[in-house]
């Protein structure tokens, strides 16, 4: 009897592995991934099946994209926002025109001119500006972060929101369930008691996707009165203020946007909120304003695994390929896809000043180890790599030539480009680019040049660890 049950279980396990292997072949992102999944599912189904159920899906199900005819109310919001943006449409100019045109074709959200953009360096400047805007809010405050902690900064955010709510401002808070797994229910309960709507973004709540836990909503966004948007790399936690004993000083970058482009960032929040609640919240379009003095052209880089064509890699690759003089990039993680790696190396090979800034210390070991495996190609192409020395460097910033900058939540890794919901802003403005340049120069002064022979000269054990980590790169 036991032998029969064992034989039946073995047959069912193998059959399940074969069926999932067929699915892996159909949905895998690359041929290499298809082969790897199929092999492990057929040969070792007892290991491959649970791994595939968690990590194998490449497309996020259950998320409704605006303007696709799947939600009447969400589509109405989309068309109202597009009509507003059309009135301020301004494409990027020069070599970067194609990047903004492609972004518009993919997202149907045009780049707009007349925006005022301000660079916010580190936690004090960022949350000082955010709290000031919340304190001056009259109508609405939308808050979204990947991570919210119930610590001094988290409680300070709650206090400002409660004060705003008590004077009649409609406040909403959205956080990622995985990123904020340590957030106690009491934090949200305290806000709900004051009339503030608080929701968590759970990626596996819909039927049939109970194991879909490999996706994240990594966006950081605050919108106040439909007039001002804040986005960047900082989450809500004391470590982002440099108060962590483990990381010490925390280096990060955010930005403030005022102008017509804010409507495009509203759409990102509306889609996320609709996924969580199946409701489209009331919204206002940015009010006409001519007194903020803005001249920047901006397009939102809002991307995620629910899209057939992700805007994130398209925008980055287009801008990198168009750079002719300078390409400076800061990212806490460097685990690029082959197209991204080749684009960066090709830029260096055609004479562009390519500099990559990475942190000295690791907060996640796998991507930190994986980055070393790319050193040989970077070195041979002439890419310069710098390691930021004091504390942890978490900013996600790109600077191209004299007038293009991207600031937001997007890391240079597979996860940001393929698995996460991400949000950045691409900006064409010489004044803003100059501010970003000065920020980079100050950061380079706190860096040491990396030895790009470190991987090849490392011990056998070190190189093996790096290679094994790189094998997991699509899931980091």
Structure description:
With 476 residues, this protein is of the alpha/beta class. The protein folds into three domains: 2-55, no CATH class; 72-92 and 113-297, Endonuclease Chain A (Endonuclease, Chain A, 2-Layer Sandwich); 311-475, Endonuclease, Chain A (2-Layer Sandwich), CATH 3.30.870. It contains 16 helices and 20 strands. The longest helix has 26 residues, at 2-27. It is globular and about 75 Å long. The two termini are 44 Å apart.
In brief, what are we looking at here?
With 476 residues, the protein is of the alpha/beta class. The protein is 42% helix and 21% strand.
Topology, please?
Blueprint: H1 2-27, H2 31-43, H3 45-55, H4 72-86, H5 97-107, E1 112-121, H6 122-135, E2 140-145, H7 152-166, E3 170-176, H8 185-192, E4 197-201, E5 216-217, E6 221-224, E7 228-232, E8 250-251, E9 253-258, H9 262-277, E10 296-303, H10 311-322, E11 326-330, E12 334-335, H11 338-349, E13 353-359, H12 365-370, H13 375-381, E14 384-388, E15 392-393, E16 397-400, E17 404-408, E18 412-413, H14 414-419, E19 420-428, H15 430-444, E20 447-449, H16 460-471
Parallel strand pairs: 2-3, 3-4, 5-19, 8-15, 11-13, 12-18, 13-14
Antiparallel strand pairs: 1-9, 1-10, 2-6, 6-7, 7-9, 10-19, 11-16, 14-20, 16-17, 17-19
Helix pairs in contact: 1-2, 1-3, 2-3, 4-9, 5-10, 10-11
